[in-house]
Amino acid sequence: MADPMNRRGFLTRASLLSSSLLLSGCDPLVQQSWFRNILYGAENVTRSVQGLFLSDARLAPEYSEADISPKFRANGTIRPDDDDYTALAADDFSNWKLEVGGLVERPASYSLADLRGMPSRTQITRHDCVEGWSCIGKWKGVPLAHVLDLVGLKPQARFIVFYCADTMEQTLDGEAKYYESVAIADARHPQTILAYEMNDQVLPIPHGAPLRLRLERQLGYKMAKYIMKIEAVESLKEINGGNGGYWEDNGYEWYAGI
Ligand SMILES: Nc1nc2c(c(=O)[nH]1)N[C@H]1C(S)=C(S)[C@@H](COP(=O)(O)O)O[C@H]1N2
Ligand SMILES: [Mo]
Description:
Helices cover 22% and strands 28% of the residues.
């Protein structure tokens, strides 16, 4: 699987991508200030410190149908080869359920039909990947805040953790699966949705079927695809490498604000 994205590899990828993406429906990001800051190291400390104390209540820009990228790039895992996932995909995820647990009053599990029956939000937003490309897509899903209200967060809950189906690497202790986490305030942001549709279609496997996170004020790697379980926790320290996400355990910032 992918190597940790160290700065040198990242720079190489960034320059490759900014040239190759000119040919696709997506745009290179080198002209964006947040991207230059990441490339050249400015403000990273400030960002992570801010992420611990503040949330970003601003709305991300939303776009029109005409702005939707003709081809939305799929990145990272594009089809988990885990047996459990393969079996669920074979039945169009009719046996999949989202487990919601941890520091909640009423642990629950929801089928896709359950989630589709809940209030929904549709948004056309720009996805920015740390590797230096962006695409605009349309997403429909249930606001995460709605699900959190259904299960009732306990007062100690500070973070929401997303556990994904895809194995990224085999480790001495077993396997490292993709996972991510956000602060409660970001989980409750109105544009934070658990998406089951993309561009008016059932969410395709390369983009995270059956359910993926959209967290529009942060970079692409925060937006967990192939979600199996979400958990409310007080601390991220005990989970996997302790940094709140697969890429964070490999050196990336936990708060990836744009
Ligand atoms: N489970 C899982 N989620 C993931 C990834 C992944 O490899 N596995 N890649 C992340 C990265 S780096 C990006 S840019 C986006 C890509 O989403 P897309 O495939 O819809 O473009 O998913 C993010 N979420
Ligand atoms: Mo990404």
